[in-house]
Structure formats: C-alpha cells, structure tokens
Amino acid sequence: MLSFLNLLLVGYTAFAAPILPRGSTFVQGTGVSFYSSDLSAGAALKAGSDYTCYRGSASRFPDIGQWASFDDLWKFQITNALSPIGDSSAEIQALQSAITSIGQAAQVDPRVILSIILQESTGNLKVGCTNNGVENCGIMQSHDPTDQSFNPANMVQSITQMIQDGVQGTATGPGLVQLFNNQGGLTAVTNGNLWMVLRAYNSGSINTSDLSNGMGATPSYVSDVANYLQGWQGWGSPARDSCGF
C-alpha cells in the first residue's frame, strides 16, 4: 500500500493523514464516474496471460467501458487465485459479500476493490503486515488498521473489517474514499480520478505525468490493477515482464 517516504518531494503531490473516522464517507463528485452497481455489466474477459503496458498520465489508462464485469472477474479469480491460495469456500463467500456490500455503500466499484486485493495480497486472507514507514496490514494492506490480521475465529467480521479499512479508511489514515474525495487533510489532488487514486494508495505521492513512477513503491502498481480489471491472471505473464517496469 502507501509509503510516507516521499511525501515532501518537490514537484509531486502528497497527502497527510486524514482526521475522518473509518467508514464515515462515500465517493462523491467525479469519482462516481468510476463506479457501477451492475455486477453483470462489462466487457469480455481478455486472455489471462494478456497484459497491456500502461504508462504516462491518467488519460492513457482504460476507461470503465473496457473493464470486465465483476461477475466474470470473480468467477475467474476464484479458480485462478482465491482457491489456489488456500481460501476456503466459506471465506471466499464472505469476501464476495464484503466487497459488494461495502463497495455499494462507499460507491467504490467492487471490481476495483477486487483488483486491489489481488495486487496487494493475491487474495490471501492470511497475508502478513508490511512496513515502509507505515504499518500496512490485511488483505488490502490498509493504513495502520486496528485489526492487524485475519481472525479465523471471527471470520465474517474480520474480512469485513479488512475491506472497510482499505475502502473507507482507518482512524489514522486514508482509504480509497478519502483519496477519491481529497478529504480529511489530504493535499494530494486526485481530481477523483481512479488512476491517480491508485498511485496515491500505493505510494503516498503522485507524479501526474507518469503514474508508473513508483515514488519508492511499486512502479507497475497502477498498470497491474488496470490489467486485473480486464481479466489478467496476475502471474506467469511474459507480456508483463517485457514492460520493463
């Protein structure tokens, strides 16, 4: 997820920790154009090994009409990622419910949530925490969450909390909603644009002319999520390796 190592670099936008409580907001304004409540609507899935090397400004990334439907992406990733990683059928069902219900409440497209989960943790509910100046935990590697990891003894609540933390933010840091809305003390200007939101979510800073500038984080992050939205399998892709991120 995000790093605070480069927040003050000249020429880039950055954010400070928001004061909004988690779960308190939903996407408004321009950001709503990246949301659809229709889980069955979308373009055809591309071949899982296909990968497009997206670089540059936000205008060079795929519009929502090029994304596959949530239903198709979900069915594909159950067999491609979630079951092979070791998630049980009950856990997968709880994950689907959390993604769709929180996505609807927050007006964050469930396809985006799913794709970030795949990028951050490959869908592994038991993923550990990382720390690049901020503790990032859970399936979405959210900002310093209260619940640090998956709790199998309270499966549904644990999964729901991990998704809520990533989408709607934690008590100490932003989620996708805050990044879309530029709220809660943020100085990063995303203009409600998904692709700039993704760069801020991963890096904590945005080079608006080149969203594949990782700013100390993952250069391919925004491009990877764009490809997940179209049906990329996420591994074993020579086409991605050729991008040179």
Short description:
By secondary structure, this protein is mainly alpha-helical. 36% of the residues lie in helices and 4% in strands.
Describe this structure in words.
This protein has 245 residues and is mainly alpha-helical. The protein has helices at residues 70-85, 89-106, 110-121, 155-168, 176-181, 194-203, 221-228, 238-241; strands at residues 13-14, 130-131, 135-137, 142-143, 205-206. A three-stranded antiparallel β-sheet has the order 2-3-4. Strands 1-5 form a two-stranded antiparallel sheet. Helix 1 packs parallel to helix 3 and helix 3 (110-121) packs across helix 7 (221-228). The chain is globular. The two termini are 17 Å apart. The model is unreliable at 3-23 (pLDDT under 50).
Given the structure, what is the number of helices? 8
Q: What is the approximate shape?
A: globular
The termini sit apart by 17 Å
Sheet having the most strands: 3 strands, antiparallel
Taking strands numbered 1, 2, ... along the chain, how are they ordered across the largest sheet? 2-3-4
- Please indicate the percent range of residues in DSSP E strands (runs of 2 or more): under 5%
**Helix-residue proportion:** 25-40%
Structural class, judged by helices and strands? Answer: mainly alpha
Order of helices and strands: EHHHEEEHHHEHH
- Unreliable sequence segments: 3-23
Question: How large, in whole angstroms, is the Cα Rg?
Answer: 16 Å
Strand tally, please? 5
Mean pLDDT: 87
